[in-house]
Each structure stands twice: as structure tokens, then as C-alpha cells.
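Whiteboard transcription, Tuesday session. T.W. wrote the C-alpha cells on the left side:
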């Protein structure tokens, strides 16, 4: 396949998604890789295709003491540099291809083997300083192209339709929009209608969501959208991650952070917030997967310049 945005840094996982000594399969721009983390938190990544007879290494197993992966087909064993491990020692030559990673704290980035075109952003580290990481949610492979998926994150008019259920967003206004290269920042005011008791029972986070929400969105094109909101339990940061698995399939997940004045409320509502964010991803997924092929729009809505800005970055990459 033709690679999407070659040279872009992709955030392919948070360390908490990998487990310990568990092979984890990643698909990026049409290529499969196996990633694993050892007890020390070191990460290894190889092409998932075994160089012997092309079995998927991710179906194999990790040796904890040697930090190797064993192929499930004929049990050949490879170390983190792709060297065959035989008769108690490593061969000198690597025969399994490695994937170069950049690991920054708990975030695992890669350029997918391409020459870097832009640096790895440090936006999330900056924004989340003083926050506590509370988990990953909304992990999904969406059956839609990367551009359609990323545009949803820059689209300030889909709330009234896509997120009508549950969040009852009545209106959504962009109050400021600034850009600087691949960075963009939007301030948004969203007004909600009241939820019914049964909606609140199903999704308790709704009980403490304010009627008027003043949110800040910061973008680091193309991998990341950071949504910051005030809630009665404190500030929350919802980081939406996207990367292209294939031309028609896009991976997403959300990293959630909280800065709370009230540890008890945080404990009580943590899972509710993760579940609410998961619902947002499901609603966006349903919307994007159901679209017909893109055509020139015959009508414009307010605030769409934010979306056109992102489309331009994509087209002119
Ligand atoms: S295919 Fe992997 S060891 Fe043979
Ligand atoms: Fe959305």
C-alpha cells in the first residue's frame, strides 16, 4: 500500500497497553510488527513476519530471561535486535527486521521506518504536567481511512448529530482558533441539555458534567488531539490518538489524565469517565464508518475553517 503521511511520528502505544513479556501485534501503514515489554520496561519491536517461513511472530512467546521471542511455527528464537538465538548464543547477524522506536517515558513512538519529517511532539508531556494518568480507553480499529477519522477531531459541528445521544450537546461554538505549523489550539463552548435519570444511571459521569462546557483542544498533527475539560472532580485530559493501520483502517485509543482536588470523587468517577470517553469513540466510529465517499460539500457550517486547516496539512504533507 501507499504509506499515509510518510515521515510522521506515530504514537503506537502507551506502555500500560503492552503487558509484561506478552507479544503485542501492531499494524502501521500496511506492515505488521510485534512489540513486547520486559520487566525492566524495555521495549523491543520486530517485523512480525518470521524470516524462516513467514509465521506471525506475535503468536509466539517471550523468554523472560533471554528477552527473546520464539516463533510459533518451528520455534526459532530471536532477540530484540532480530538475531537468531541458537545453542545458547546469539548469531552475529540480524535476520529479523527491527522497527526503530522512540520511547519517551510511557509513550512509544515510531516513524515506521521512514526518515523523520517532523520531530516527535512533546505537547502531551507539557499539557499533562501535574496530572495523573488514569488509563486507556476506546481502543479500536476503525474501518475508515485516516483522513476521515482525523477530520472528525477538527469538526465542531458533528456534536449536535453524532454525540446527540447521551451528551445532549445542543450547540457548540469555536471561540478562538490559532495555528502554528502542525500545532493548533481551539477554545470551544458547548451547551448541554439535561439528561434523563435513566441516562445518568447508565452513564454516571453525566451527573457531574456541567451544562456549559468550556473546553480547550490542542492538536499535534497528525497523531494527537488533546481535549481538556473542567469537571467537578477536577481537570481532565482526554488524548485522542490516531494512526493509519492500512489505507482503509485506522487505529485509535484514548489516554486519560486527571488532576483532582478530591481523591474520593476521583476514585468513584474514574471508571465512569473512561466509559464516557469510550462512548464518544463508539459514536465517532459509527459516524465515520457509515460515510459515503467524500465529495465537495455544497454547504458550509460555522467554524469549519479548523477542519479545512487539517485537511490542507494532510493534502500538502
Ligand atoms: S516460520 Fe518461524 S521458525 Fe519457521
Ligand atoms: Fe466526536
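and on the right, the sequence the group agreed on:
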Amino acid at each position: 500500500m501507499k504509506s499515509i503521511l510518510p515521515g510522521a511520528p506515530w504514537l503506537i502505544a502507551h506502555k500500560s497497553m503492552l503487558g509484561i513479556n506478552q507479544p503485542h501485534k501492531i499494524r502501521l501503514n500496511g506492515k505488521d510488527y510485534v512489540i513486547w515489554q520486559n520487566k525492566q520496561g524495555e521495549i523491543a519491536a520486530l517485523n512480525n513476519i518470521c524470516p524462516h517461513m513467514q509465521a506471525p511472530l506475535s503468536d509466539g512467546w517471550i523468554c523472560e530471561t533471554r528477552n527473546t521471542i520464539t516463533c510459533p511455527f518451528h520455534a526459532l528464537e530471536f532477540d530484540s535486535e532480530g538475531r537468531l538465538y541458537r545453542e545458547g548464543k546469539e548469531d552475529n547477524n540480524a535476520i529479523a527486521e527491527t522497527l526503530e522506536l522512540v520511547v519517551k517515558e510511557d509513550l512509544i513512538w515510531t516513524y515506521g521506518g521512514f526518515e523523520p519529517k517532523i520531530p516527535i511532539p512533546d505537547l502531551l508531556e507539557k499539557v499533562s504536567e501535574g496530572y495523573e494518568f488514569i488509563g486507556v480507553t476506546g481502543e479500536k480499529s476503525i474501518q475508515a481511512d485516516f483522513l476521515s477519522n482525523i477530520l472528525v477531531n477538527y469538526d465542531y459541528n458533528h456534536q449536535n448529530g453524532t454525540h446527540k445521544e447521551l451528551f445532549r450537546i445542543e450547540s457548540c461554538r469555536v471561540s478562538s482558533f490559532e495555528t502554528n505549523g502542525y500545532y493548533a489550539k481551539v477554545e470551544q463552548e458547548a451547551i448541554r441539555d439535561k439528561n434523563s435519570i435513566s441516562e445518568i444511571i447508565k452513564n454516571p459521569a453525566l451527573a457531574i458534567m456541567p451544562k456549559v462546557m468550556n473546553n480547550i483542544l490542542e492538536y499535534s498533527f497528525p497523531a494527537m488531539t488533546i481535549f481538556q475539560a473542567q469537571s467537578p472532580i477536577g481537570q481532565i485530559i482526554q488524548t485522542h490518538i490516531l494512526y493509519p493501520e492500512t489505507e482503509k483502517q485506522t487505529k485509535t485509543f484514548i489516554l486519560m489524565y486527571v488532576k483532582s482536588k478530591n481523591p474520593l470523587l476521583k476514585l468513584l468517577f474514574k471508571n465512569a469517565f473512561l466509559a464516557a470517553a469510550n462512548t464518544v469513540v463508539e459514536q465517532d466510529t459509527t459516524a465515520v464508518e457509515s460515510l459515503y465517499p467524500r465529495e465537495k460539500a455544497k454547504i458550509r457550517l460555522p467554524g469549519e475553517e479548523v477542519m479545512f486547516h487539517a485537511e490542507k496539512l494532510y493534502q500538502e504533507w
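Someone added at the bottom: The radius of gyration is 21 Å.
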